[in-house]
Structure formats: C-alpha cells, structure tokens
What does this fold into?
Amino acid sequence: MTLRLVLHNSSPASASPYRLLDEQDRELTWANDFLDAQRIRQLSLRSLRAYAYDLLHFARWLQSTRRPLAKINQSCLLDYVRSQLDHEPKPTPSTINHRLGVLRCLYRFHYGREIPGGKSHFQHTYATRSSLGYGRPQRRLARGLQLKQPRRVVVPLSADEVARFWKGFRTFRDLAIIALMLLDGLRSCEVLDVQLEDLCLADAHLRVLGKGNKVRSLPLPAETLDVLQSYLRLERPLTNSSSLFVSLKGHHRGRPMTAVGLRSLFRHHRLGSKVPQANPHRLRHTFGSDMVRAGISLPALMHLMGHAHIHTTMLYVELAPQDVWREYARAVAQRVRLSSPEIS
It folds into this structure.
C-alpha cells in the first residue's frame, strides 16, 4: 500500500489542507486528525506542510514494520532513527530531531501521555533550579531520544562579498528584496508574504508577519525606502494582487512572487557575482552580525529578527571565524608595534 500527501485548497478553514492518503484515496485518520488539530491551533500553512511531510515519512516506515501507532515506544523510535541513518542520503540531525518532536506531539495528542520506554529508556527526570541559584530544585522530564546537533556558527558575508552581490541586480524590485533582507533581517518567506497594506512609506516602517504568525513592526532605512518607492512607481505592474512583490514579466506577470522564483533569482546572481555563499539566510545572518558589531542591545535585535528565544539571538554574539582572525591580526599588529625598539 502506497501512502502519499495531497494538498486540498478547498478545505474548510478548520481543517488542514494537507491530507495523508493511501493508494485507494482513503484518509490516514490518525495523521489527518492530528493535522486538523494543529490547523485549529492556527499553525501556519508552512508549519502544517512540514508536519505533514514528517508524518508521511513516519507512516511509511510504520507501514513497512507492520506496527500499530498504539504500540510504539522508545525502542521503536530507536529503530526508526537507525533506519534513517542507514539510508542515503542521510538526513541531518536537526531533521531527525524535528521528526521525533512531531511524533511526541502526535502520541500525546492521541493517548494523553508520553511515549513509553520499552526496552530502551531515553527519558529520565532531572533536577533544575533558577539560573540565579535561588529556590528549590524542580523535577523536569528530559525529552527522550535526541541526536546531538552540531553547534551553529553564524558566518556573515564580508563587505566585499555584499558589494559584489549587490552590484549584479538591475531592477528596483530585486534591490528592494535584497535591502529588506540585508538592512532589516527579513527571512525569505517573510519577504514573499509582505502585502501592500503592510507598507507604510509615510512613517518609514513595515509590518512583518513572522514565524508562528507573530507580527512585528520594523523601521525602514532611507536606502530601502528609495528602492521601494522606485519599484512601486516605475516597475510594479497594474495588478489585482495584494502582494508587494510580484513577477515583472512572462506568463506570470503581475502574480505574487513565489519561493521557486526567489530561489531562481538568487541562484542566477550567485553565479554572476561569483559569491556562492550568498543566499537569503546568509543575508539575514549578515544583518544580525552587523547589528551586534554596531553595539545594538540583544532585546532590540531579538525583536528586529523575530526570534522567539533570546538563545537564538545570542548566536550572533559569538564571533565568526573571520572575526576571530581579524581580531587576532589586530592584536598581533598592536603587540609588534609596542614591542618594537625605538631606533635613535
């Protein structure tokens, strides 16, 4: 029996448009009920899509092992992880951990408790207390089986790389997209989701709908305002679309710009500028790193970038390799200058 994921755009607002079906087009009830519940919780369509693909991957494995959902335990999860690591291409630890997290939510949704141990016991309780050291220790439950993820290091683009990449753009629309990522730290999905009504040129600010449907207001620097005004006045086609960024030519002229189109745009300019590291998230990293170097406070940067946790913002405080070498070279040069004997 073959399982597949389909998208039903005509689904009611209380149901997930993503549905798991078998080869006879029958719904996989245990998966779709969970997705419907997440839809009711107002999860974004992007999150629902990620959940659905994670469930599809697990459902196919569960079907191959002939195990019912009610019988899974930590030992089953260990077998599930082992099967992923044994197949090529091997998924990243973060991908596997995300799948395990979705499965824990799925099990709690259906059975109201954590996944039992079985022969393998990864869940355990531990004591924790306030980071300031006061109060009584509290008992917490560890999340269970989880792969160790490599430590993230934020590596921004250099000023020369930014200049070379920026120089290759010819339309005001594309320059405005790059400016929002580089000077305001927007994610690629946030750029595509910006609507005309979100833009307030008179007050120089932009309303952004970020992850988890969280809204934040961002200031627009003069450079970004200039290219946005030029795009709206000179390039944007007459269209009924409410999206700020639309296609400028071809059969899709006037329609909202898509993620595929944005990836194609970046791919083309990476080749032309010979800056292979230039991608939307690297521009966002560059914005965060530049703000930290300029001395912005972490709470302010957390708001600007739309982070849910300050720990994510702290990644930009840690020096990237080129920053370490730059500081090293500066310190060595200073040391040599101070230790050089004066010649009379």
Observations:
- The radius of gyration is 25 Å.
